[in-house]
């Protein structure tokens, strides 16, 4: 399956559903383009849903980090929905100390209401 990023909205939060292989050469600008479009539309609360990502390598982690940095630099915030296998990668790479990740979409979107935002 080729990499896909589908944008939808849940209240005042933009959710990007990622699916497929987020690996070197598979998703050259798909995620970056989706993030840029949302930022240009004024979105500042973004959830990256990695539930349907079948494979994630270091290049994919790098692309994800760059996308998150773009949101932060624009004054926004990102939450991640990570299944256990991806959460484990986040732990091993210490990215879980940098990015907020949640086990499901409801927890991630609700976190914008519970935790103060920078917006």
* Biggest pleated sheet: 5 strands, mixed
Q: Count up the helices.
A: 4
Number of strands: 5
Using only C-alpha atoms, the radius of gyration works out to 13 Å
Q: Write down the overall geometry.
A: globular
Mean pLDDT: 90
Strands of the biggest beta sheet: in what spatial order? 1-2-3-4-5
Number of self-contained structural domains: 1
Which residue ranges are poorly predicted, with pLDDT under 50 across at least 5 consecutive positions? Answer: none
Query: Remind me, CATH topology?
Result: Transcription Regulator spoIIAA
Could you say which structural class the secondary elements and strand pairing correspond to?
A: alpha/beta
**CATH homologous superfamily?**
STAS domain
* Strand proportion: 25-35%
Can you tell me about this structure?
- With 119 residues, the chain is of the alpha/beta class.
- The chain has a single domain (4-114), classed as 2-Layer Sandwich (Transcription Regulator spoIIAA), CATH 3.30.750.24.
- Helices cover 39% and strands 31% of the residues.
- It is built from 4 helices and 5 strands; from the N terminus they run ββαβαβαβα.
- The chain has helices at 30-40, 58-73, 84-92, 105-114; strands at residues 4-10, 13-22, 45-56, 77-81, 100-102.
- It has a 5-stranded mixed beta sheet with strand order 1-2-3-4-5, sandwiched between helices.
- A hairpin with a 2-residue loop joins strand 1 (4-10) and strand 2 (13-22).
List the helices and strands and how they pair.
Elements (H helix, E strand, L loop, with lengths): L3 E7 L2 E10 L7 H11 L4 E12 L1 H16 L3 E5 L2 H9 L7 E3 L2 H10 L5
Parallel strand pairs: 2-3, 3-4, 4-5
Antiparallel strand pairs: 1-2
Helix pairs in contact: 1-2
């Amino acid at each position: 399956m080729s990499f896909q990023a589908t944008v939808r909205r849940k209240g005042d939060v933009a959710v990007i559903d990622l699916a497929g292989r987020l690996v070197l050469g598979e998703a050259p600008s798909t995620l970056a383009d989706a993030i840029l479009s949302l930022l240009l539309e004024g979105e500042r609360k973004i959830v990256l849903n990695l539930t349907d990502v079948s494979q994630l390598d270091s290049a994919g982690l790098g692309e994800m980090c760059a996308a998150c940095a773009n949101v932060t630099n624009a004054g926004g915030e990102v939450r991640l929905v990570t299944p256990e296998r991806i959460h484990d990668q986040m732990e091993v790479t210490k990215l879980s100390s940098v990015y907020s990740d949640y086990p499901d979409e409801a927890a991630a979107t609700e976190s914008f209401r519970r935790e103060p935002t920078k917006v």
